[in-house]
Amino acid sequence: MGFRTAIMGATGAVGQELLRLLDERNFPLDSLTLLASKRSAGKKIIFKGEELTVQELTHDSFKDIDLVLSSAGGSISAEFAPSAVKAGAVVVDNTSHYRMDPEVPLVVPEINADEIKNHKGIIANPNCTTILMLLALAPLHKKWKAKRVVCSTYQAASGAGAIAMQELADETRALLDNKDYQRSVIPHQYAFNVFAHNSPMTENGYCEEEMKMVNETVKIMNDKNLKVTATCVRVPILRAHSEALNIEFEDEFDIQEAYELLRNAEGVEVLENRAENRWPMPIDATGTDPVYVGRLRRDLTQPKTLELWLVGDQILKGAALNAVQIAEKL
Amino acid sequence: MGFRTAIMGATGAVGQELLRLLDERNFPLDSLTLLASKRSAGKKIIFKGEELTVQELTHDSFKDIDLVLSSAGGSISAEFAPSAVKAGAVVVDNTSHYRMDPEVPLVVPEINADEIKNHKGIIANPNCTTILMLLALAPLHKKWKAKRVVCSTYQAASGAGAIAMQELADETRALLDNKDYQRSVIPHQYAFNVFAHNSPMTENGYCEEEMKMVNETVKIMNDKNLKVTATCVRVPILRAHSEALNIEFEDEFDIQEAYELLRNAEGVEVLENRAENRWPMPIDATGTDPVYVGRLRRDLTQPKTLELWLVGDQILKGAALNAVQIAEKL
Q: Do A280 and A293 share a structural domain?
């Protein structure tokens, strides 16, 4: 009574975590098919003690498949998701391609699981920075109506894939050893450096990553009056994103109540020790499910405004975990 | 016709840059005395081809000294600056100790050099993040009157001194080699990690570093209506700080004019290539004098609000260079 499941992009950073989560969470599988590009086809992957062979993704890959978890990049989803739907599968798409399509639900299960039932074959998994931000924002928004968020991100290499994580480690070692290093995916020196998010620029001066936060927030929260402005930045971290949020509410809020709301929110953990000046850090979040929040404090420059800090694993809640949670709700 | 000059904290990260700058800028020196803690006394330092011996700092160190450049920590300045003033010297103090003292000018020469003449023996050098932010903010504020700034920082190890820089490098290497590492100055894992600024917490939930930005801005800009809220964060970078600013003005602004104002501002350089998605990075600023700005874009969430990104060398314009510039104005 399970799903005949396929993973598109099975050999990537998110694909690897999808496999681990399907195992760990005992996801009801009737079969598991691993799909990837021609380059990765033939690779062997052990799943629950069984050796699976990665198959080349083609338009005919979806026969007898109920569920496709796709994280092979936007252009791959654009090309192959319709074939999967045509073959009768439901696609949970981890890329940006279908997110703003009005026919496609964009889902963070803790926030808008109800949208899942409206799908027409494809359900989109939001952008990682958006998911992490909204897990912390949603319970506060519900209570006091957030109207404007200024967000600065501190994003890890993992958002650019497994190769970027390896590049960061390799380049750092080369730099410490005073050796040259030839990058292949990251456009700038990443070791001991910080750079504006390398997604394409849009006309208005924001990069696509920033505009995803702006637009996906409105769609997921179903609130046109919830405005986000973002500065997305890559920092030399392997796989957890951090975000500084400045949130202006319609209504007056209370800090202690905000802590309570976050403590009780699904998928969120308050992590701090004020006396010891200890707040959420990427190494706390790496490899774990929750979004960790802390440093709630009143903005002294204007009323009804809250500052907070959050950290979450980019590959897990930011991608693979959210996708599996969507599939579990199906 | 020069200054008989002493450097307090000559062996630290800022002290080393002070020496380099005095040489490079041909600062008018009649003599140069290097002062440091007992531990560093006896150390030899070459300056302009001459070997100088570091002397132990005592209350009697300031006989025949006209100028003291102090960067040995707040408690050292608190203890020894009065002795220097009593002996007839002017102290340019690089620590936080005297910054908010109403008797002490707090100076960024490009912004409020006029304040220098009001000194009573001590002139304070502002906090590094404040200096960098204000160099970019001042020309825009002058034109359109900034009223609220939301700032998120990406701060380097150098702000915690030369030992912290070495720790970051050593810990990173140990982590890449899967070896244990014993930290001595940084409170958290710093390699491939990010943490809230480790300055002491204040009652209101902001750390001291954040409150410095709030309070020093008002004093330097001499404007009680210029409000700053900050989130200060350490990222694993060696010596240049980055900052994301969201600036709300009283008056309507123009992006192209903002670029022009910044291009013409002393100490500021616009560095960007929009077509190539290339913006200021810490590795651009390391070892250089200017504050680099870029990514000017209109905040889409409210009117009269500008987003920008800046990077500056924490040890140079953030500390040693600003101090030497103050001394040059004397």
A: yes
Query: How far is B262 from B292, CA to CA, in rounded Å?
Result: 10
B73 touches B104 (CB < 8 A): no
Same domain? For B166 and B88 the reply is no
What CATH number has the domain bearing residue A118? 3.40.50.720
| pLDDT tens readout for residues B86-113 | 999 999 999 999 999 999 999 999 999 9
Please tell me if residue B143 touches chain A, with a CB cutoff of 8 Å: no
Taking each helix axis from N to C end, the angle separating A208-221 and A128-144, rounded to the nearest 10 degrees, works out to: 40
C-alpha span between B194 and B206 (Å, rounded): 17
Residues of B in contact with A238 (CB under 8 A): 192
Average predicted confidence (pLDDT) for chain B: 96
Look at residue A1 in the predicted model and tell me its pLDDT. 73
Same domain, residue pair A51 and A89: yes
Which residue carries 């001991």 as its tokens? A192
Tokens of B266: 């002393």
Does A323 lie at the interface with B, CB-CB under 8 angstroms?
no
Cα gap B153→B309, rounded to integer Å: 10
With bands split at pLDDT 50, 70 and 90, how would you rate the model's confidence at B142? very high
Count of structural domains within chain B: 2
- A-proximal residues of B, 235-264, CB under 8 Å: 235-238, 242, 244, 246
- How does pLDDT run across B264-290, given as a tens digit for each residue? 999 999 999 998 999 999 999 999 999
- Cβ of A205 under 8 Å from any chain B Cβ? yes
Are residue B134 and residue B115 in the same domain, yes or no? no
Q: How far apart are CA A284 and CA B263, in angstroms?
A: 42
Residue reference for tokens 């750092």: A172
- Residue range of the domain that includes B226: 130-314
B47 and B142 together in one domain: no
- Predicted complex ipTM: 0.95
Q: For A112-138, what is each residue's pLDDT tens digit?
A: 999 999 999 999 999 999 999 999 999
Contact A242 B233 (CB under 8 A): yes
Interface of B with A in 3-62 (CB under 8 A): none
pLDDT tens for residues A79-89? 999 999 999 99
What is the rounded distance in angstroms from the CA atom of residue B167 to the CA atom of residue B304?
Answer: 43
Q: Are residues A267 and A140 in the same domain?
A: yes
CB contact under 8 A, A300 and B187: no
Instruction: Please tell me which residue in A119, A128, A151, A197 is annotated as part of the active site.
Output: A128
CATH code (residue B191):
3.30.360.10
Stated as kind and residue range, the H or E segment containing B246 is strand B240-249
